[in-house]
Design a protein that fits this description.
The chain is of the alpha/beta class. Among the domains are: 250 residues, FAD/NAD(P)-binding domain (3-Layer(bba) Sandwich); 36 residues; 162 residues, Glutaredoxin (3-Layer(aba) Sandwich), CATH 3.40.30.120. Strands 1, 2, 3, 4, 5, 6, 10, 11, 12, 13, 14, 20 and 21 form a 13-stranded mixed sheet that branches. The protein is globular, with a radius of gyration of 28 Å. The chain starts with a strand and ends in a 27-residue tail after the last helix. 44% of the residues are buried. The N terminus and C terminus are likely disordered. InterPro entries: FAD-bd, FAD/NAD-bd_sf, RIFMO-like. This is FAD-binding domain-containing protein. One of its GO terms (biological process) is ubiquinone biosynthetic process. Keywords: FAD, Flavoprotein.
């Protein structure tokens, strides 16, 4: 076969469209000749491997949330996890407003987190070695129905596993399954100890090779599926196999993460200096201490290190214990180092989220890697999963075109790019504190680079290490009591600079309401608003200033603004959020209107067209506060014969008088909300002259329905179809019976 080999021997390109990517001996990608969007059930019919609509690689929070949502929406899936057990090393710990809003609808997960997290007063501050504290987090439930949370990733995984167990998922080791694949049913299983080692695109879909160790012998299990979702983290194997590259800044900082317990330290900090993050700078050591749980004394210490002079292997348990004592300032009696891991800080986003003929999709850290400053990593990943799940469901049900998959990338990738920039900005803000104290990290990096470039090839590593640590010791002396005090002119100047940074809010921030709740999709599964000032770039410029105030917006692509509501014509007197107007148990659209005749007319057209499309949709009529039952009953006659509607009454909070006013729109507006609580379309009902035609146009854009796309991509709908008998590898007798 004529081919051109890459210089590194890593790729092989053929002239006829087939291609192969070769990684290590255990990882490979084969692209076979195949028709565009060929059916999962096509081919020769001699395949006896298990068949699944979706396989998820990675059982971290993002992969588990994705598996829960897909299962809830009726999509059969399995999860591959290369580790044989779930890590207990705490990683992410801050859950922002938007992610908590999503967790509210995951069978009460948000409530479980709120009940299990440490008391708020123990973690709402950042603490610096000077005893000055950063901004206190805001927990007022005005802009969202739920507050942020401080909850360690490994504990979140435990809760998610319980939720999955409740809907029939099982966690299995290789020995629990056996090596036979003839009659294997993998759906609703998390396969531990299984690494995605190869991917092959075929006429039937995608064939995964999953390597596992059984009785000391490496084996490979073949799994056939329609779509492969890579949620396998920052060092994603799926991304590597798909040949998708990352773009951005690499190697911003190398760190050692030390997970340890000390109830003595936890009790001391709870009593004397409660907080979530402790930035500690003293002549003996520098580090950031994350208090995951003060009550139980669980901590993670982040220590910067500079290879090759300092190597990860140098950080033994004993050395880490000594560093902990130096940073604490006294010796707790019960320090227990549980785990030590190296990691590298990057700020990168994948060049694309979807590859290999739309068969492989990246989610979470596989698609983006942020500095931890701001806690955007896991939160952005969970929101990726939330964006993708409903689209896969509508694709499986034949309601949406396969082009809706591309809207996942067009919506989520710009958000990741923006969050990457914001994380870097916040990381630099965090570093302004040590810089003000005379410990500028950029100077440390420059010193390290000079040693590498000038001494690296001349003197032995041990001597290089001594030189580096000697220079760092001189630098750390800048925060000694001798220099850093009000009587020392230099120390007084630095302390004044530090106070200025903190008073002006220019240090590390952990809450970004404008970005957490106010991000907006510009293009995607929505009817874009043609206004220059509403572009993503304009939003970006608006938020580039230090103000992080969230401003509710009803523009297309925005998250539906929150306000408390009360159901009318029911005995239930309780209040709920406007976000709860959107069903969390199935992908359902909601049209929000005011009780006006022209809006009811548009609502009837919406229900009729949605019924034709077999698209779950309901009408939500928002009435002013104090509306009487006699008027409210008018919805029944206006919307007859349709019954899928709800009448609700506003419960506004001062200074806002109504939901429409809060959204800066009139009550003539109608708003179509997607299953992920983002606005798909808005207009004013009296501007619509032909309701049926307008609704058809809207659904056509939102669901990516055009005759040309349906003709070209119809076979991909079958990729997500699952046969009634998972062991039957033969195609259905009449594929045309699947509705497009």
């Amino acid at each position: 076969m004529p081919s051109i080999a890459g210089a590194g021997g890593g790729r092989l390109f053929s002239v006829n469209g087939a291609a192969a990517y070769w990684g290590s001996s255990r990882r490979r990608l084969l692209l076979l000749q195949r028709p565009l969007f060929s059916s999962y059930w096509g081919g020769t019919g001699d395949d006896v491997t298990p068949h699944l609509p979706v396989v998820i690689v990675g059982a971290g929070p993002v992969g588990l949330v994705l598996s829960f949502l897909l299962t809830k929406f009726g999509i059969k899936c399995a999860v591959l996890e290369k580790n044989v057990e779930f890590t207990r090393h705490p990683r992410a710990h801050f859950i922002n407003n938007r992610t908590m809003e999503i967790f509210r609808k995951l069978d009460g997960l948000a409530g479980d987190i709120e009940r299990s997290q440490p008391p708020v007063d123990l973690w709402r501050k950042f603490v610096y070695c000077t005893s000055l504290s950063g901004s206190i987090l805001d927990f007022d439930k005005i802009i969202s129905p739920i507050s942020v949370a401080h909850f360690s990733q490994h504990k979140l995984v435990d809760l998610l596993l319980k939720k999955l167990d409740g809907i029939g998922f099982q966690t299995c080791l290789p020995g629990d399954i056996g090596s036979s694949t003839q009659d294997l049913v993998l759906e609703n299983k998390i396969l531990l100890g299984h690494e995605c080692s190869s991917v092959q695109l075929t006429d039937k879909g995608i064939l995964i090779g999953a390597s596992f160790n059984e009785a000391g012998r490496m084996q490979e299990r073949k799994i056939h599926c329609g779509l492969l979702l890579g949620a396998d983290g920052a060092r994603s194997t799926v991304r590597e196999l798909a040949g998708i590259h990352m773009k951005g800044q690499r190697d911003l900082q190398k760190l050692v993460s030390v997970h340890f317990r000390s109830k003595d330290l936890g009790k001391y900090l709870s009593r004397e200096r409660p907080g979530m993050l402790f930035f500690i700078f003293n002549p003996g050591a520098i580090g950031v201490l994350v208090a995951h749980d003060l009550e139980h004394g669980e901590f993670v210490l982040q220590i910067p290190f500079y290879p090759p002079q300092q190597m990860f292997e140098d950080f033994s348990t004993k050395i880490c214990e000594e560093i902990i004592v130096k940073l604490v300032g006294w010796e707790p009696s019960d320090v227990q180092v549980l785990d030590i891991k190296p990691w590298v800080m990057h700020a990168e986003v994948a060049e694309k989220y979807i590859g290999c003929d739309k068969r492989i999709i990246l989610v979470g850290d596989a698609a983006h890697r942020f500095p931890p400053a701001g806690g955007f990593g896991m939160n952005t990943g969970v929101q990726d999963a939330h964006n993708l799940a409903w689209k896969l469901c509508l694709l499986q049900n034949g309601v949406a075109s396969p082009s809706i998959l591309q809207t996942y990338e067009s919506e989520r990738r710009p958000v990741a790019i923006f969050n990457t920039e914001l994380s870097v900005e916040n990381f630099k803000a965090a570093m302004s504190i040590p810089a003000a104290l005379g410990l500028d990290p950029t100077v440390a990096n420059s010193v390290h680079q000079v040693i590498n470039s000038s001494l690296g090839s001349v003197i032995p590593r041990n001597l290089q290490k001594s030189v580096l640590e000697g220079l760092f010791s001189i630098g750390r002396a800048q925060v000694s009591d001798y220099i850093l005090n009000e009587k020392n002119p230099l120390g007084s100047l630095r302390l004044a600079r530090l106070r200025s940074i903190l008073d002006e809010g220019k240090s590390l921030q952990l809450q970004f309401p404008a970005e957490d709740l106010g991000f907006r999709y510009e293009l995607g599964a929505l009817v874009a608003e043609d206004c220059a000032e509403t572009t993503y770039e304009a939003e970006k410029q608006k938020h580039s200033k230090r103000s992080r105030e969230y401003i509710p917006s009803a523009k297309a692509g925005s998250r539906l603004p929150h306000m408390l509501m009360r159901a009318l014509s029911t005995s239930n007197e309780g209040v709920f959020s406007t976000l709860d107007l959107v069903n969390g148990d199935k992908p359902e659209f909601a049209l929000i209107i005011a009780p006006m005749k022209v809006s009811y007319e548009l609502a009837r057209a919406m229900l009729k067209i949605a019924d034709e499309l077999k698209l779950p949709t309901k009408i939500c009529v928002i009435w002013p506060q104090g509306s009487v039952d006699a008027k409210v009953k008018g919805s029944r006659s206006e919307l007859a014969p349709w019954t899928n509607y709800v009448d609700v009454e506003e419960v506004p909070r001062a200074p806002v008088n109504s939901w429409w006013e809060m959204c800066q729109i009139t009550s003539k507006s109608v708003i179509l909300v997607r299953p992920d609580e983002h606005i798909a379309w808005r207009t004013e009902s009296d501007r619509v002259t032909d309701a049926d035609s307008e609704v058809r146009r809207v659904f056509s854009e939102v669901l990516c329905l055009t005759s040309r796309i349906q003709t070209l991509e119809k076979p991909l709908l079958l990729l997500l179809k699952s046969p009634s008998n998972a062991s039957n590898s033969h195609p259905p007798s009449n594929t045309a019976s699947y509705r497009t």
